[in-house]
Q: What sequence folds into this?
């Protein structure tokens, strides 16, 4: 993977724009009171509105609009005080109304941007064209019966935000960073759970290729990607396909394509010529949506701290590196956990423990901070034992491993195993004497000028003390004792 592709005729560049469908967190649907809960019995959450029964009237769910406004603010967009719901007309078995209610010419949010962090540590700003609100369709089930397809309308009418980017991304990695960042932002804002496996976030990727400096080429759109990894693969495949076509003298037909994960290729679904004419028109059942600036201001005032602001604060106030801050901020549960550990403690030490030790163990165990056997408070207590010299950092790692396994408190383990650090100089001197007596040869070499052996002695003394001797005291005492 890379930023450019070498073709037979030279170097090509990717041009990528993404349309992300994000399911709005709301107990009920966009225009009905039916539940949005995932995984329920098919067709158990369908109101007459969602089933497209004649004569039913949609009633807007204000929570969904509030969520869209929050998201718009979170991506630095302009909130439009008036927006319009349109009918997007098409036929599909999972769309009983015969149209989807969406926003076309006047969406609730226009403009905005998302900053992504690139691998080399630099930032890039990706423009957002618009965010509009629309209904989701139902789901056709083709795999339940060899001779029939079924329709589940539980998803029909669920509120979605469609977030359309500018064609600003230049590699599959940038596209991946954009989707991850958007996912982080909506999760912080509490407006979408970002669960791609459950379909709460789905991506349509628009891809074209060009030689550096040339105008944009014709694009193809790959529909319904529900994993970041698949999206990257689909974009790579699609760009190579287009380059092959162009280099063999062909032209790109603007198409909608589907990605076949098993075959690792995209194939045509429909071309522009057969593209739907959706006959958009304002939905006569819904008045234009008017919201007040004061309401928007209230929502803005109540916004939680977002990932960029949190990252900047971790770096500026806590002195964390960009890398550490980025790792901690990526999932808001992780950031929250870290903040509880760091409260009233050394921020960098806390970051090290959370990132290296806790995340390391969680990874191995396939767990997240939410089901961590070591709570933020318990980890904080362990760090306190290091800071007040009760135990060394080395011993603390063993204590942590045991905390993780047994759920016991740090203090209890230290007590039970007698792991308290030895700071008593008499006791340490006794260990040093013992080591010097048994290492007479090395001692002679050291005294003969082989300074490098100092570290060896430190190691031996630490080992002989079972790791419990205070390393600073060991260093100081050894210096004088080895001189003889
Ligand atoms: P339409 O009006 O046909 O939906 P838009 O201009 O809204 O087209 O663009 C849809 C998506 O396609 C946007 O995400 C946009 O960034 C992207 N896009 C537009 N032109 C190109 C291009 N030449 N190559 C790649 N992506 C593009
Ligand atoms: Mg568009």
A:
């Amino acid at each position: 993977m890379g930023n450019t592709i070498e073709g037979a005729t030279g170097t090509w560049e990717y041009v990528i724009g993404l349309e992300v469908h994000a399911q709005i967190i709301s107990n009920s649907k966009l225009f009905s009171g039916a539940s949005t809960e995932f995984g329920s019995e098919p067709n158990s959450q369908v109101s007459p509105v969602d089933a497209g029964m004649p004569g039913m009237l949609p009633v807007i769910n204000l929570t969904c609009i509030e969520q869209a406004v929050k998201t718009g603010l979170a991506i630095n967009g302009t909130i439009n005080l008036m927006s319009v719901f349109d009918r997007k007309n098409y036929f599909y078995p999972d769309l009983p109304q015969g149209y989807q209610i969406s926003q076309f010419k006047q969406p609730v949010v226009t403009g905005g941007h998302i900053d992504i962090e690139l691998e080399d540590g630099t930032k890039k700003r990706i423009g957002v064209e618009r965010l509009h609100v629309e209904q989701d369709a139902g789901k056709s089930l083709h795999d339940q019966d060899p001779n029939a397809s079924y329709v589940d309308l539980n998803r029909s009418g669920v509120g979605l935000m469609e977030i359309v980017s500018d064609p600003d991304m230049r590699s599959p990695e940038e596209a991946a960073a954009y989707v991850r960042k958007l996912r982080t932002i909506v999760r912080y804002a509490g407006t979408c759970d970002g669960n791609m496996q459950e379909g709460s976030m789905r991506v349509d990727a628009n891809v074209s290729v060009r030689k550096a400096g040339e105008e944009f080429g014709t694009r193809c759109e790959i529909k319904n990607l529900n994993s970041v990894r698949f999206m990257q693969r689909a974009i790579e495949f699609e760009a190579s396909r287009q380059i092959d076509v162009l280099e063999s003298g062909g032209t790109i037909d603007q198409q909608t394509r589907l990605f076949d994960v098993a075959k690792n290729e995209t194939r045509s679904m429909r071309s522009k010529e057969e593209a739907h004419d959706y006959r958009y028109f304002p939905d006569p059942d819904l008045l234009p949506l008017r919201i007040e600036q004061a309401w928007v201001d209230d929502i803005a005032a109540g916004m939680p701290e977002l990932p960029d602001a949190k990252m900047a604060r971790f770096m500026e106030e806590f002195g964390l590196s960009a890398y550490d801050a980025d790792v901690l901020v990526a999932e808001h549960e992780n950031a929250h956990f870290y903040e509880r550990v760091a409260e009233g403690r050394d921020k960098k030490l806390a970051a090290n423990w959370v990132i290296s030790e806790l995340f390391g163990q969680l990874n191995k165990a396939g767990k997240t901070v939410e089901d961590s056997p070591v709570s933020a408070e318990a980890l904080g207590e362990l760090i306190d034992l290091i800071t007040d010299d009760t135990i060394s950092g080395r011993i603390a790692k063993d204590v942590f491993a045991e905390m993780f396994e047994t759920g016991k408190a740090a203090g209890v383990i230290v007590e039970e195993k007698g792991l308290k650090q030895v700071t008593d100089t008499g006791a340490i001197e006794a260990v040093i004497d013992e080591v010097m007596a048994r290492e007479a040869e090395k001692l002679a070499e050291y005294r003969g000028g082989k300074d490098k052996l100092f570290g060896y002695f430190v190691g031996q003394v630490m080992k002989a003390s079972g790791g419990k001797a205070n390393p600073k005291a060991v260093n100081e005492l050894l210096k004088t004792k080895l001189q003889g």
User: Anything to note?
Assistant: The mean pLDDT is 94. The chain has three domains: 4-298, 305-417, 425-483. Residues 425-483 form a domain with the Arc Repressor Mutant, subunit A fold (CATH 1.10.10.410).
